[in-house]
Amino acid sequence: MSKRLDKIFQNNPKKTKLISFLVGCDPNPVASLEILKEISKYSSCVEIGYPTSEASAEGPIIKRAHDRVLDQKIGLPKIIQLAKDLRSSNKEVGICLMGYAANLYMYSIPNFAKDIADVVDAVLVVDLPHEVREEKELRNELGKNGISLIKLIAPTTDDKRMKEITNLSSGFLYSVNVRGITGVKKADLGEVTNMMTRIKKFTKTPICCGFGIKTPEDARIMTKSGCQGIVIGSTLVEAIEKNLKADKHNIAKKIGEICRKFSEVLN
Q1: For residues 15 and 68, what is the distance between their CA atoms, to the nearest angstrom?
Q2: Which residues lie closer than 8 Å to 147 by C-beta, 6 or more apart?
Q3: What phi and psi, each to the nearest 5 degrees, are found at residue 44?
Q4: Number of H helices, E strands in the chain
């Protein structure tokens, strides 16, 4: 659905794309924008998490980032502004907003889709299965604005449900490498490769795999799975947490350098 994402995955399709996640406005809005600008130099797409107190799929590292942002009384409107500021400085990078359904209900789905049009390329809502009415509403509203709704496929997803999900997918599919929450377990190449094979039976949509990829070497190994993209998150968020006292330029450079190392091993 998103023309920018289509272009990203069609450009040099043999190269595995880097998708970088962080929680928007962590550690603060000004530093977060500088970090996003820096990691966008090395990432095909950035996922910006919008904060919630109900981050049920997140491990302790990312959950603490949500809490840091919530402590600043920052909600979805400021995250959308952050995405707009990033788009003003970078017209090429893919931007995906990622989070949970409650925020969208409070904002209203039609207003959300309208306010991110021409800025955001995709939205991923962790706790919104395709069977519910609100998911269909969100998918339709995003579609009117050329925005993809990214769907998750988990290791526990059976073939029937996988086929249903892939039929609704656009932009890219997010394949979860491990059972459980983020930032805890390490991905296994054999299991991820089997997952790629299963998903590709049903779709030509690009598949990005995430969870359990903590180092550039982990990422390099996962490129052998047949995925089109690698998602990194906890490593970046943990680095932000370790540099909370750094000024916005230094912290951005540190996080950017991590992304550069990941990007260099992808082929």
Answers
A1: 35
A2: 1, 2, 113, 116, 117, 120, 121, 122, 123
A3: -75, -35
A4: 12, 8
CA angle 173, 179, 181 (to 5 degrees): 90
Kindly report the length of the chain: 267
Tokens at 103, concatenated:
């925020």
Tokens of 244: 């909370």
Structure tokens at 125: 């809502």
Quick one: DSSP state of residue 225? Answer: G
**pTM of the predicted model as reported, rounded to 2 decimal places:** 0.95
pLDDT digits (tens, 9 = 90+) for 77-100: 999 999 999 999 999 999 999 999
- Integer Cα distance of 260 and 41 in angstroms: 8
In this model, does residue 217 exceed pLDDT 70? Answer: yes
Name the token pair of 75. Answer: 């909600």
Closest CA to 97 of 126, 58, 123, 75: 123
**Contact between 173 and 166 (Cβ < 8 Å):** yes
66-74, long-range: CB within 8 Å, 24+ apart, which pairs?
66/23, 68/23, 68/26, 68/27, 69/23, 69/24, 69/25, 69/26, 72/25, 72/28, 74/24, 74/25, 74/29
Residue for token pair 């590292």 = 61
